[in-house]
Design goal:
This protein has 215 residues and is α/β, with parallel strands linked by helices. The chain has a single domain, classed as Metallo-beta-lactamase, Chain A (4-Layer Sandwich). Helix content is 25%, strand content 29%. The strands form three sheets. It has a six-stranded mixed beta sheet with strand order 1-2-3-4-5-6, covered by helices on one side. The protein has a six-stranded mixed beta sheet with strand order 7-8-9-10-13-14. Strands 11-12 form a two-stranded antiparallel ribbon. A hairpin with an 8-residue loop joins strand 8 and strand 9. The protein is globular, with a radius of gyration of 16 Å. InterPro entries: MBL_Glyoxalase_II, Metallo-B-lactamas, RibonucZ/Hydroxyglut_hydro. Pfam families: Lactamase_B. Its cofactor is Zn(2+). This is MBL fold metallo-hydrolase.
Length: 215
């Protein structure tokens, strides 16, 4: 059974996730750890639970989700996997990071790419990759339907949606991604977003002011 540990890192209050199961194999998703104290908090948890990190995943590559990429790759000797359409997004971070005040940002490169229909595997667990552009060109969500889990990045939030005013963002595309991919999941599916608390597909279908389905 997949266990999920959430950490809230950096000034953007980004959710970093560690997923693991009974085998102790783990994956790190969207490491937003920029400060050394944040990196220590994350690595201390991994060490305390005797986890073996086997993969690093970005749902998308905006600055707040990739601060810790180089740290994770270096410390655990793992590869970074992203969607090909977000490679330019990742490479652009080193250009604008200083303007945001992050002078010590460490650039990272993708080692592999996933596509719609691929699977992320660790231990005895599997996550399906669904392509959900709109917030970022290469955004994906990661789903385990057996446990009703959706690692949603910045697509859908509790009562809100991802912003679309950043380069590569498209409002209509994002809404389509939500309706076609996220809302196609079971109503009981728990969405673990890139910011804020969890929500469910069923709740957002009914009440989300941006994307609720009309009755």
């Amino acid at each position: 059974m997949i266990q999920i540990q959430n950490f809230v890192f950096n000034p953007f209050l980004e959710n970093t996730y560690v997923l693991y199961d009974e085998t102790k194999e783990a994956i790190v998703i969207d490491p937003g750890c920029y400060e050394q104290a944040e990196r220590t908090e994350l690595s201390d948890f991994i060490e305390a639970n005797e986890l073996k990190v086997v993969q690093l995943i970005n749902t998308h590559c905006h600055i707040d989700h990739v601060f810790g990429n180089s740290f994770i790759k270096r410390k655990y000797d793992v590869k970074l996997t992203i969607h090909k359409e977000d490679e330019a997004t990742l490479r652009s971070v080193e250009v604008y990071a200083p303007a945001y005040g992050f002078q010590n940002y460490e650039r990272s490169e993708a080692d592999a790419f996933y596509e719609e229909g691929d699977q992320v595997k660790f231990g005895q667990s599997t996550l399906d990759v669904l392509f959900t552009p709109g917030h970022a060109p290469g955004h994906v969500i990661l789903v385990n339907q057996e446990q009703n889990i959706c690692i949603g990045g910045d697509v859908l939030f509790d009562g809100s949606i991802g912003r679309t005013d950043l380069p590569g963002g498209e409002y209509d595309v994002l809404i389509q991604s939500i309706h076609d991919k996220v809302f196609a999941l079971g109503d009981e599916t728990v969405v673990y977003p890139g910011h804020g608390g969890t929500t469910t597909v069923g709740k957002e279908k009914i009440s989300n002011p941006f994307c609720a389905l009309s009755k």
